[in-house]
Each structure stands twice: as C-alpha cells, then as structure tokens.
Amino acid sequence: MKVFADKLIDITERHKEDIAKEWSRAVRANPRTPWFHNVDEKRCIEHALNFYTNLRRIYFSEKPYTEVREYFAGYAEESFNEKIPLHETVYAMIMMRRHMWLYADFQAPFLTAIDHHQAVETINKTIRIFDHGIYLVIRKYDELRKK
User: Residue 60 has what DSSP assignment?
Assistant: First the structure.
C-alpha cells in the first residue's frame, strides 16, 4: 500500500497549488457552496493548500486519528469563525477530496502497473480520513454553537 500511497501523496504535494486552484474555481462556482462565491481566489486557494500541505503528516501518522482530530478541529473552528455554514464546510471538504483524486487520476504514474488492491486500500484510507474529519467538523460546530 505504501508505494501507491506515496505516489498519491507525492502527486498531491507536488501539484497542490494546481489542485487548490482547480478546487477554488469549482467551490466558487458550485451552487452548493454559495458562501465561497464571493471569496477572493487567493484566500480560497490558501484554504485548500492548508489541507493538501498537511495530508502527508495525517496520512502516514502512526496515530492518524489523533492527527485528523487536531487538524479538523482547527479547520472547523476556523470555518465556524468565518461564518461558513456547516453544510457548505462539509461539501467543500468533499470537493477537496474529489479534486485530489481527479488530479491524481490523470497523472501517468497512477495509470501504470499499480496493484489494484493497493489502490483500493489507499482510496479507502483517504476516504476514512475525510469521513472522520467530516464527523469531527460537525461535532466541533455543534460544540461551538453551544458556547
């Protein structure tokens, strides 16, 4: 699994600016994320870059759920303080994951001689990270609302 995961993470790290720009264009135009429509492109890109920059540390951590909890609690607090509606915060996260995979899917190293089982395992772990992150964001928003 490490070889495939390394390629995914390497592609994401090497091209994080391009992926973040694509995500920014998409999130600023998507009807499900109207809060982002008038956000400055640079600010939007920085929003995604923050995640893509932290992905290697989260993915390869010996205690990934600790890393996920720390990262996404901060992400939730920042989003809450910016008054991004919860449903848009979650959908923007889903779009971040999607854009990472879309970009990687078009890269030649991904398309050649990758063990299918390793690819599925990497996809599953990435999805688990995001799913747990989404849960944590929702829980943190709830905590912050109650304060």
Answer: T
Residue 138: per-residue pLDDT: 97
**Angle at 80 (CA atoms; ends 76, 86), nearest 5 degrees:** 80
Surface-to-core class of residue 137, CB atoms within 10 Å of its CB (0-12 exposed, 13-18 middle, 19+ buried): buried
Q: How far apart are CA 100 and CA 54, in angstroms?
A: 13
For the chain, the domain total comes to: 1
Q: Which helix (H) or strand (E) holds 101?
A: helix 86-105
- The angle formed by the CA atoms of residues 23, 58 and 113, to the nearest 5 degrees, is 75
Report the CATH number that the domain containing residue 11 is assigned in CATH.
1.10.490.70
Q: What is the pTM of this model?
A: 0.85
